[in-house]
Amino acid sequence: MRRIGSWLVLSFRLLRWEVLASVAGTALLAAAMLWFTWQLRTLAATEPACLDPTTYVAACEQSPQPFYELSSRAELLSYLGWAAPFGMGLVLGIPLVSREIEQRTAGMAWALSRSRARWLAWRVAFAALVLIVLLLVVAIASEVLASAQMPNRHLDDDFAWYGRRGGLIVVRGLASLGIGVLLGAVLGRVLPALLVAAFASVLIFTAISFGMDRWTEADAIVQPYGVDLAGGRYLGQRVELPNGELIDYGELQRRGLSAEWFQDDMIFAREEDVGHPERMIGRDRGLILPGRLYPQIVLRESGIVGGATVLLALAATAVVRRRRPG
Amino acid sequence: MSVNQPILEARALAKRYGRRTWALTGIDLAIPQGGITALVGPNAAGKSTLIKTWVGFERPTRGGVMVAGIDPWRDRSGVLRLVGYIPHPPALYDGLSVDDHLDLAVQLRPDFDRAYARRRLDELGIPGDQAGKSLSGGQQAQVALALALGTRARILLLDEPLASLDPLARREFLHVLTDAVRSDGTTALLSSHIVTDVEQACDRLVVLGVGKILLHDTVADALATHWLTTDAGASAHGEAIGSFGGPTGERLTLLRTALAATAATNVRPATLEEVVLGYLASGRGKPGEAAA
After folding, report:
1. Closest Cα to residue B49, out of B38, B57, B41?
2. Residue A64's closest CA among A144, A151, A158?
């Protein structure tokens, strides 16, 4: 126990400002989210019928307005929940190795520790622990806020605020930590590593998001473009040809067809064809991932991001084992 | 490892940084067990590179090194078990107190002798609760030495720990080091470019020029076999090693001879600093030449 206590104290002191900044940021964000939750719930409780999209109540023409105004601000706040794992992961991860090299303490530490891999694990474990605890707070607070902002939706089967609530926040944070540690170890300087890691994070997570969308297309359903998503996730716009083939607009152009005129969901190449359904090129469609797949997709992305985190950790260990202490 | 086997070895060791810069060019060196060896040379002579190669922080470009029969690049953890190391400069952590540094050493190395290290610091009056970075340069060097000594390692590799210390701090450091080496039977290698400081403390002397060994001898033999002359024709008395400018502008030549040359005019015993200066003057050359 004493050994663990000493590890916690020393690790905190070595990462004091980053931990304090992360705690302060989390506390502010969670407090703001909970305040919005309270406000939204108070407003919703006064006119519950007005927030039910399935019924129309004439008296509700004006009354839910304060709710929706607050709701749009809460939505903006949710984007901070989306950004938190990237920011905190990099802030906590980058200095772990790069500052040791920059301030020339790595030589002493690596000579005292017989294994650099163990030293790295010793350093990273604390940052990961702090990150998990703080991001869990953000994940729960944003989940609570989402439920207050969308009181009539069942969010366990709903892609609303995807990546801005729940466990994905924690998993993405750990991957960002891995990116920070790896690039900090490679570059050996805090500020350059921060800039490069921020850029690398954008690239890596964009690639993962793009890959996820392509992977989940097979599970998507086709519905008329613009129809309410009903908890589903929009993957892209498609054209359904009269023969039933589904292609994207790029493919449509490659086939020498040009979508120039629209009538309802029908697409026409020439103005004179409009009003003649038999002359349409095809129908405008949306590719939608149904809301019921939400838990499965979150699990899949968590697996991919978790796998990437393991690879990043292995790469960081390899770099630390081979690099000069500065 | 047998008693006679050198504890630190370098065989045809060459180290190149980048494509062109040679830090070491064919080093052959065998340092026996026990005592303190001074590794002396000017800036950029390759002292730090040589020490880092023994710690396993640098990979030889050619040749190899051994620490107590172990190749540090192949078995770094095996070597680190035997070595206490002070890097140059001996940086302490920002935001950690002196005692925190000792706790950190215990965390990283479970067999670290914290009580021993603390006792060494107590003897010097260095408080445990003071921030490491707020200590004077001399005290920071002492904390770094205590961290190296607390490993209870058989070998201490100390990379210029005396640089930037005032004379009193240097003396204190060497006193603690000498005391520890004598009482524990440790082997220490101390690199420095300040010859006068290591003269009293060290048993052996290695002079490193730009990337190559110029002299390796005991301090006693180095003093007994080297002479200094202002006479240009005095080389008849022994092997002329190198010439350098004296404090009053005269040209001094270092001679090496087994015989006492006191009978000759203008010949006197060389001090250790003059021995080093003579060898450094002899070794001036481009670092890449020997390796090419």
Report:
1. B57
2. A151
pTM of the entire predicted model:
0.87
Rounded to a whole number of angstroms, the distance from the CA of B242 to the nearest CA of chain A is: 35
Phi-psi region of B63 (alpha: psi -120 to 50; beta: other; left: phi over 0): left
SS3 A65: helix
Instruction: Flag whether the ipTM exceeds 0.90.
Output: no
Per-residue pLDDT of chain B (292 residues; tens, 9 = 90+): 555 679 999 999 999 998 888 888 889 999 999 999 999 988 888 999 999 999 999 999 999 999 999 999 999 999 999 999 999 888 899 889 999 999 999 999 999 999 999 998 998 889 999 999 899 888 898 999 999 999 999 999 999 988 878 888 888 889 889 988 888 889 999 998 888 877 888 999 999 987 789 999 999 999 988 988 887 666 666 788 888 888 888 888 888 876 655 555 678 888 898 999 999 888 664 333 333 2
- Sign of CA pseudo-dihedral A30, A32, A34, A37: negative
- Find residue B65's DSSP bridge partners: B10
Residues of chain B neighbouring A98 (CB-CB closer than 8 A): none
Interface of A with B in 56-95 (CB under 8 A): none
- DSSP for A236-255 reads EEEEE-TTS-EE-HHHHHHT
Q: Which domains does chain B have, with CATH numbers?
A: 8-218 (3.40.50.300), 225-291 (no CATH)
Cβ–Cβ under 8 Å, residues A226 and A209: no
The C-alpha angle with vertex A132 and arms to B95 and A190, in degrees rounded to 5, equals: 45
